[in-house]
């Protein structure tokens, strides 16, 4: 991967983030170096509270690190303003959040088209993109539904469609199959694999070993740090053993 494209899609160095809330300060990210090649599919797993979502928020510019730097396509983001990050998210980073994915008082169609319209895509094209994506996700016929009328899995797929509508080179997805049953998880997995095969760079945060097994590489996150970073080998069906436990190469 990096042989073909020397400039990584995403690079982070020395990322540190402590949350100061009501309780004791939470040292969510404690020094993370990360390089994601173009076209690479990286899964980030780890226990609850390990700092996975915080890391993803940092990588998407939704939160600022206390220290450390992030490069997008080789460009240092240190000097980016909030507005600049917002533009980059519209143009080249699709994000699926762990919670609050959809605007509840907008239809499915409007939810998916919104980022395209905000990015200045002509309405006709935004609509065409939306139709293509929803069809691909098995959601045709749901355009006029409101998010509250959809199942959890359908909502997650709409959120993915919304994150992908601008063809962002980089997709950051936080538990896109969280709370889904195995069928829903399979659907999300198939979808991510399909985009990956077309060259989509993906950073996926998940608890789910099956979902992680679709990735090229699995990063285990623990106590705000990368505890393990392993390339996966073999076909997807071989990667998950009978126990459902990931089989990683040493
Ligand atoms: N906005 C915030 N204010 C204060 N503390 C926070 C905030 N966000 C996260 N934390 C704390 O930072 C730590 C890491 O949280 P984070 O959400 O990144 O974990 P996570 O790995 O995504 O967990 P999960 O798997 O449950 O989603 C936790 O201790 C959490 O309580
Ligand atoms: Mg989280």
UniProtKB/TrEMBL annotation:
Q: Which GO terms describe its cellular component?
A: membrane protein complex; plasma membrane
Q: Which UniProt keywords apply?
A: ATP-binding, Nucleotide-binding, Transport
- Tell me which PROSITE patterns the record gives: ABC_TRANSPORTER_1, ABC_TRANSPORTER_2
Domain ABC transporter residue range list: 10-248
The record's listing under InterPro entries reads:
AAA+_ATPase (IPR003593), ABC_transporter-like_ATP-bd (IPR003439), ABC_transporter-like_CS (IPR017871), ABC_transpr_LolD-like (IPR015854), MacB-like_ATP-bd (IPR017911), P-loop_NTPase (IPR027417)
- Give an example GO molecular function: transmembrane transporter activity
> Domain of life of the organism in this record?
Bacteria
UniProt record similarity statement: Belongs to the ABC transporter superfamily.
* Annotated PANTHER family: IMPORT ATP-BINDING PROTEIN, LIPOPROTEIN-RELEASING SYSTEM ATP-BINDING PROTEIN LOLD
Q: What is this protein called?
A: Macrolide ABC transporter ATP-binding protein
């Amino acid at each position: 991967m990096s042989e073909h494209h020397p400039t990584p899609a995403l690079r982070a160095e020395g990322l540190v983030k402590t949350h100061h809330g009501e309780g004791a300060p939470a040292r969510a990210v404690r020094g993370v170096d990360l390089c994601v090649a173009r076209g690479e599919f990286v899964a980030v797993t780890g226990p609850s509270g390990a700092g996975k979502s915080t890391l993803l928020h940092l990588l998407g510019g939704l939160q600022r690190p206390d220290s450390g730097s992030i490069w997008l396509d080789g460009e240092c983001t240190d000097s980016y303003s909030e507005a600049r990050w917002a533009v980059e998210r519209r143009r080249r980073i699709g994000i699926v959040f762990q919670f609050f994915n959809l605007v509840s008082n907008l239809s499915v169609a409007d939810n998916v088209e919104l980022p395209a319209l905000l990015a200045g895509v002509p309405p006709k094209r935004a609509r065409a993109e939306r139709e293509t994506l929803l069809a691909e996700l098995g959601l045709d016929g749901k355009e006029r539904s409101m998010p509250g009328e959809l199942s959890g899995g359908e909502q997650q797929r709409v959120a993915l469609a919304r994150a992908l509508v601008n063809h962002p080179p980089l997709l950051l997805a936080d538990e896109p199959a969280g709370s889904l049953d195995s069928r829903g998880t399979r659907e999300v997995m198939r979808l991510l694999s399909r985009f990956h095969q077309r060259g989509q760079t993906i950073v996926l945060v998940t608890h789910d070993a099956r979902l992680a097994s679709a990735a090229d590489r699995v990063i285990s996150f623990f106590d705000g740090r990368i505890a393990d970073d392993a390339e996966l080998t073999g076909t997807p069906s071989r990667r998950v053993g009978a126990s459902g436990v990931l089989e990683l190469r040493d």
